[in-house]
Each structure stands twice: as C-alpha cells, then as structure tokens.
C-alpha cells in the first residue's frame, strides 16, 4: 500500500511542483503587502495633522474633483490623526481622458493612462487619498496597475484571470498539493518507536544526502498540519463549492439579513455625511477606522463599517442610518454572525497570516519559503533512489556474468 502512496506522492509532485513553488513564492511576497505598501508610500498614507479635520462631505468632494465622472463608493477614515482619508470610486471601463481624470496622477506601469484592463473584466476601483486637514489630494491609486496585483494574479491565476486556464491549473495543482501532503503524512508514519524518534529530529552529523532527506521528511512532517490549513483555506477562497461546504457542514446559511431601507420623503434632501455618522459618535470614538458608504437610491441607507480598536481585522460591525432623518435604523454586528459565517470570515486572515498580526505573518512567510524547498529536496531524493537502483542493477549484472 505504501508503494502506491509513494507513487501518488511522487508523480503528483513532479506534475505540480513548479506551480506549487510559484504559489509559495508569490504567497510569501503577499504576506507583507500592506506593511510594504505603508513603508514605501508614506506620502500616500500619512499626513501632518494640523487643526481640525474637514467635514466628510468636503473630503469626498475634494477627491471627486480628481475623478469627476467616477461614482462615489466609500470614504474610509482612521482614528489615528496621522492617517490620510481614503475615498474610493467605481469607474466605467473607459480610457482616462474620457473620465476626466488627471492623467499625471494615474499612470499604468507601461506609461499609459488607463483604468484597469478590459480583458480582466469587472469594474476597476480607484482610490483617492486626501489630506483630511487641507483637502489636498495626495495620490490616486489603481490596484490593478500595482506590483502586488500582478503578484496576486500570478499566485491565483498564473497571470490569467478568474475564468482563465491559469486558474484551472492552479486549482488542480492545489488539489494535488492536498493529496501530496496527505500521502506524505502516510509515508512518514513510522512502524515503531525507534523509527519515530529518527523521523522527529534532524541528523546534523550526516552526509548531504541525509541532510536533504531530513529537510524533506522531518520538515515536511512538522509543517504538514499548517500546510493542510493553508491549502484548504486557499481552496475555500477560490472555489464556490469549497466555500459552500462550510455552510453545509455547519448547517447554516451564507446569507445575511437584508439591510433596512430608508422611508422615502419627497422634497427632502439626503443628509450630510457628518450628520449620517453623528448617531455613531460613541462607537466611532473607539474605532480603528470607519468606512462610510452612501445610499444607492431614494430608499437606500448610509452603511457604516466600523472596526473597533484592538480586534482582528475581520471583526467589522456594520450600522445602517436613514438617509433623511439620520436615525440609526439597524445593525449587523460581527458577533451576531452564524457559525458558518464566522468560520468563513476567518479563512482569509488565516490563509494570509494576518489573523494575529506580525507574529502569524512571519510564521506564514517562513512556512511558504520552507515549502518551496520540498519539490527540490523531493526531486533530489527521487534521483538518488534512481541512482541507487541503477547501481544495484550493475552489481547484479556483474555477479551474473
């Protein structure tokens, strides 16, 4: 039976090894995406706080001047007085000059004034960063034109798209990696206590061949449980069937309650953005940030996402405010999610390592780099085994003669 598992382990690894290595390397890069972005682009995210912040409406209007034909999506503001305001827009897929966007502020890596790539599909988003004290625009950022978006496309789709052959290849390789990890545990499993002790520690005094063996076998065992978690969370993020399985197993629904609606009042204007968040002043005072979304139509509501301080990044509470009266008319708190929704919420931060901040990010980074070595050490073990068999064959042939 172990011979069968060894063959499955070997040939799947040979077939998917390069794609697995690509996923590990790109995954390791993306672990520190936010940290690198904040460090490299300080002028975009940080300001010198002077005086009082401008009204939210004024910040949004300052951003809209740069993207006059964009549709306001949300305004994000941090409690930290040194952080800039982030205003996001939804844009039609047209050249920059047709949208009236300042061409000097939005440049693609190739120097063309574009908003995304039509071939990728979907409506690209644009983020305008504004100094909340002066109203000056600090930067205009399109993620689709960034280095990290290219890395993400390579990680998820081999530079293709959500419906590309690249996604299929990555998906099959990920499923193969799951089987490789499980068969690796089966192959590692010792027959007795003596072998168990040997497979739990590195033999530092051995030859290079032994060191390569231990790097593959011993490291593989210690990382296997974490690799299974990373692989499964990756599948859940990428495939609907995998995500739905959470709700099937927990017997819960992925659907959240419908948000309330504003009571339409003919002749009455929609309230100002600052009035919209006035009902949440006590909650915003204890928030790391809040994100305000405007009503989409005459019965729509203001939706305010609030991340309380000292909680993980997914624990966002949402509050709904009537667009005419400014009254709080509903809420969806993170703690009220059902079991399936709660588990699904943790999938991405577990996969990326962001769940507990820098310690888990470092762990995921090291895990990804270490996993890159497994296809290499595995191939070396395979080649050594082939050489050993050839040597035995030559010896036997000589004895027969």
Keywords:
401 residues; alpha+beta; Nuclear Transport Factor 2, Chain: A; elongated
Concise overview:
With 401 residues, the protein is of the alpha+beta class. It contains 14 helices and 8 strands.
| Average residue pLDDT | 89
Major β-sheet annotation = 8 strands, antiparallel
β-strand amount: 5-15%
Strand order of the largest sheet: 4-3-2-1-5-6-7-8
CATH class of the domain at 273-336: Alpha Beta
CATH architecture assignment of the domain at 273-336? Roll
Helices and strands, in order, run as HHHHEEHEEHHHHHHHEEEEHH
Unreliably modeled segments: 95-99, 102-124
Instruction: Kindly provide the radius of gyration, computed on alpha-carbon positions and rounded to a whole number of angstroms.
Output: 27 Å
Helix/sheet category: alpha+beta
Q: How many helix segments?
A: 14
Please state the overall shape, judged from the principal axes of the Cα atoms: elongated
Walk me through the structure.
By secondary structure, the chain is of the alpha+beta class. The protein has a domain at 273-336: Nuclear Transport Factor 2, Chain: A (Roll), CATH 3.10.450. Helices cover 52% and strands 13% of the residues. The protein is built from 14 helices and eight strands. Strands 4-3-2-1-5-6-7-8 form an eight-stranded antiparallel beta sheet. A hairpin with a 7-residue loop joins strand 5 and strand 6 (301-308). Helix 1 (2-31) runs antiparallel to helix 14 (358-400), helix 7 packs across helix 9 and helix 9 (208-238) crosses helix 10 (240-250). The longest helix has 43 residues, at 358-400. It is elongated, with a radius of gyration of 27 Å. Residues 95-99 and 102-124 have low confidence and may be disordered.
